[in-house]
Design a protein that fits this description.
The complex is a heterodimer of chains A (about 110) and B (about 700). Chain A is α/β, with parallel strands linked by helices and about 110 residues long. Chain A is about 40% helix and about 30% strand. Chain A has helices at about 25-35, 55-70, 80-90, 100-110; strands at about 1-10, 10-20, 40-45, 50, 75, 95-100. In chain A, strands 1, 2, 3, 4, 5 and 6 form a 6-stranded mixed beta sheet that branches. The longest helix of chain A has 17 residues, at about 55-70. The chains are: A alpha/beta (about 110), B alpha/beta (about 700).
């Protein structure tokens, strides 16, 4: 899995590209810890996340908790139907504000 | 990141089969994540050696086989920490060495890779009815984010239980959910459950079982039959993957936990139907999956010559009061209470839990005593199905330690017989209405779980539509299922267009529901009965994974009147503390308007208990800080109507009509608090009808 960061105005957009599972989770976790800004706004773009295991879901939730701690607002966008269904069934989705696209997420966060 | 391990035990001491390992921690049993790896612990009293077999997820051939060296064994416990394996993708099992001497109770077989009895995931039946792979153990993540959730601890007298099959509840195409037939699908129906008013769901088996473990076919269609109900456990610590939308991803534990969390948020408890009377291994001809190969003579009740006692009717009997099995059962229930926040358990064929290893009933079964006193389980409801297939019937005498409630089969039988018009039952019905103090004198009325129907037997609709069971589709030549149903078809067997018959059936259903929901004790409804679910006369749908048993949600519209009636009856129960006293009612007058219970007849205060009467009229009363709560119930199972004089109320109060099952749909029930007043102090109870009144101030 590759992490790709770009700034869209005040919003840090981080794309998670590839498979997020127990093999990639520790590295992704560490990468996100470094990329997530303090007191800022972050959008996790999952549109190119091809697979999400239970360890992957936990990475997302840990990032959410980290953001809560740091006063950072967080959203996710680009959920495939598959990822959305898994996150809904396991309750992980309920923690997140979800945007349909990066543009929409940036707009909501920056508003 | 630091390169040195944080704990002294976080590094291997041995290499076995290519893996760095060290002597593990014997406790907890099962597989648990530890820094750098996974700790495996399994016990066997009779084994002479043990091998841990590791697999990569979804692969048939083992990744490695690791023999436990002697220094990894404490007592009878084999434990090993294996480093460098990924708990998410690893699957495992055990080979146990030991003698194969059935006559001495030993059936060790090194050729079999066994499931870990403590496995928190079972792989191999990952989606319902899908491909069958060899059964393997897996390691669930146990860091679910519960936030503020805890067990709800609803007082037992306030419970209204709703029994449901997770798959059957939302599998039907009419359910309208995104994830039909799953834990997630059930979550989507929470708004419905709230609107119905129930505050506990009792889920039929959710521990891993094999739904394909049925070789019979429907004789008419030739379609294969299933083990749909799942009273045949494979993995006692593992939620069934095939009941989870995410089972194929191994996330069934998370999905189950989310279901519990969401139900709790809606004020609904979760009670699990648990099967500790037998396992899926059957008798000596059955498969060796786990217990038989680990410690056959410990886990099963065996005859002196090494065969299986069959008090469960399924081939074997779990040896529940053996000290090791006791510990296993206790560990299992603690796991569900602590890891899954489950609120209670209903023990299938619980009379078996009263039997000693030789099958004889014992007065103080240590297993039940341990469960009753366990600190982790303190807030869990414990409910016994107090009979077994070996003829032990303990309704009213189940060793309860003031903790166990019982499925009250006598309530079911009495109410069914009274409503269908059998003579001489008014007296016994009175006792059942009060929470069966004849059976539970030294306990609270909540010792009685009252029910008219359960998964076993006719649905409520079928109870008033069939005299006989119609089980041909089960492929057992009609021999299965109970013959003693106390049912009445109201004149025609099964489907009919006859409006009079249909109207009488509607009325009988409402009579049964009202008696259930005004009785002391814990009422239990079966999913779908609130809108007339039918199994077309099949009273044992254990194998029917199809539209015969799935809840058809279109009936909620077809029978909207019945649904409305049920909702109102539940709301009425919850609105009236006089129906939910936490102690047995006293018949003498205290300092209130009336005694807590009084009996009436055509004349107030003058009940007629003679056998031909078929009438019961009761006034239930309580006085609390809110005021006087007076509920009057009259059930007339006779074919003639009755004019009843009502007990006189103090000035300023009048009787109001909550329900009259003789009235046409739409006028048969009123919303609690909106009941219209009666014209005078008499009420007419039509043939085969029930009337419920409430006293209210006239100015209300």
């Amino acid at each position: 899995m590759e992490l790709e960061k770009q700034m869209r105005g005040p919003v840090t957009v981080i794309a998670l590209n590839g498979e997020l599972d127990s093999t990639t989770a520790p590295r992704v976790q560490q990468g996100l810890d470094e990329l997530v800004p303090v007191h800022g706004m972050v959008l996790l773009d999952l549109s190119r996340t091809t697979y999400m295991s239970s360890a992957g879901l936990r990475v997302l939730l840990l990032v959410y908790r980290l953001c809560q701690q740091m006063g950072t607002r967080v959203m996710v966008s680009g959920l495939s139907e598959e990822v959305r269904a898994v996150m809904a069934a396991t309750g992980f989705l309920a923690f997140f504000s979800v945007a349909g696209s990066v543009d929409e997420g940036v707009e909501v966060l920056a508003a | 990141m630091s390169r040195s391990p944080e704990r002294l035990d976080a590094f291997p001491t041995h290499r076995i089969a290519g893996f760095g390992v060290r002597a593990g921690r014997p406790l907890p049993f099962g597989a648990s994540r530890v820094p750098g790896g996974v700790n495996f612990s399994v016990y066997s009293a009779g084994a002479t050696g043990m091998t841990l077999v590791l697999y990569r997820r979804d692969e048939v051939e083992p990744l490695a086989e690791l023999d436990f060296p002697p220094e990894f064994v404490v007592g009878a416990v084999y434990s090993m920490t294996v480093f460098g394996i990924d708990a998410e993708t690893v699957e495992y099992g055990y080979r146990a060495d030991g003698p194969f001497e059935p006559e001495r109770g030993h059936r060790f077989d090194r050729g079999q890779v066994l499931l870990d009895p403590y496995a928190t995931l079972v792989h191999g039946r990952d989606s319902w009815g899908g491909q069958r792979r060899p059964l393997r153990s897996g390691v669930a993540l146990d860091d679910f984010d519960w936030e503020e959730d805890r067990q709800l601890r609803i007082p037992s007298e306030d419970l209204v239980i709703y029994e449901a099959h997770v798959r059957g509840f939302t599998r039907h195409s009419s359910s309208g959910v995104d994830q039909p037939g799953t834990f997630a699908g059930l979550v989507e129906k929470i708004p419905y459950l709230k609107s119905l008013g129930v505050n506990a769901v009792e889920l039929m088996p959710v521990f891993e079982f094999d739904e394909l473990d049925n070789e019979r076919h429907d004789p008419r269609s030739g379609a294969p039959l299933h083990n749909y109900w799942g009273y045949s456990t494979i993995g006692f610590f593992a939620p069934k993957a095939g009941l989870a939308a995410t089972g194929r991803l191994g996330m069934q534990a998370d999905e189950f936990k989310n279901m519990v969390k969401q139900l709790h948020r809606a004020g609904i408890e979760v009670i699990l139907d648990v099967v500790f009377n037998h396992t899926a291994e059957g008798n000596e001809l059955g498969p060796t999956l786990s217990f038989r190969g680990l410690d056959n003579s410990v886990y099963y009740m065996l005859t002196p010559d090494g065969y299986y006692y069959n008090f469960s009717g399924t081939g074997n009997t779990l040896n529940c009061n053996h000290p090791i099995v006791r510990g296993f059962v206790l560990d299992c229930l603690r796991h569900w209470a602590s890891q899954f926040h489950v609120d209670g358990f209903r023990f299938d064929l619980a009379a078996i839990l009263v039997r000693a290893p030789n099958g004889a009933p014992i007065p103080n079964p240590p297993l039940l005593e341990s469960l009753a006193a366990d600190p982790v389980l303190r807030d869990c409801k414990l409910i016994a199905e107090a009979w077994d297939a070996g003829g032990l019937y303990q309704v009213g005498t189940f060793p309860n330690y003031h903790r166990f409630s019982e499925w009250n089969g006598k309530f079911r039988d009495t109410v069914r017989r009274f409503v269908k018009g059998d003579a001489g039952l008014a007296g016994e019905l009175a006792t059942r209405l009060l929470g069966s103090p004849d059976l539970y004198r030294d306990r609270a009325p909540t010792a009685s779980v009252n029910f008219i129907t359960a998964h076993d037997g006719f649905t409520l609709r079928d109870l008033v539509s069939y005299n006989e069971k119609h089980n041909d589709a089960n492929g057992e030549g009609g021999r299965d299922g109970d013959n003693d149903n106390n049912s009445w078809n109201c004149g025609v067997e099964g489907d009919t267009e006859d409006k009079r018959v249909l109207a009488l059936r509607d009325r009988q259903i409402r009579n049964l529901l009202l008696l259930l929901l005004t009785s002391h004790g814990i009422p239990m409804l079966v999913a779908g009965d609130e809108f007339g679910r039918t199994q077309h006369g099949n009273n044992n749908a254990y194998c029917q994974d199809n539209e015969l048993s799935w809840v058809d949600w279109s009936l909620a519209e077809t029978n909207a009147g019945l649904l409305r009636f049920t909702k109102a009856a539940i709301a009425f129960r919850r609105a009236h503390p006089a129906l939910r006293r936490p102690w047995h009612l006293r018949g003498h007058q205290g300092d209130g308007l009336f005694p807590e219970i009084s009996w009436h007849g055509e004349r107030a205060w003058t009940p007629d208990w003679s056998p031909g009467q078929r009438l019961l009229a009761a006034l239930l009363y309580c006085h609390n800080e809110i005021g006087h709560d007076c509920v009057y119930l009259a059930a007339n199972a006779h074919w003639d109507s009755r004019e009843l004089e009502l007990p006189a109320l103090p000035d300023g109060m009048r009787w109001h009509l909550f329900a009259d099952t003789a009235r046409v749909c739409g006028q048969d029930v009123h919303q609690p608090g909106e009941e219209p007043p009666l014209a005078d102090d008499h009420v007419r109870v039509e043939p085969r009808s029930t009337v419920v009144l409430v006293a209210r101030n006239t100015e209300e």
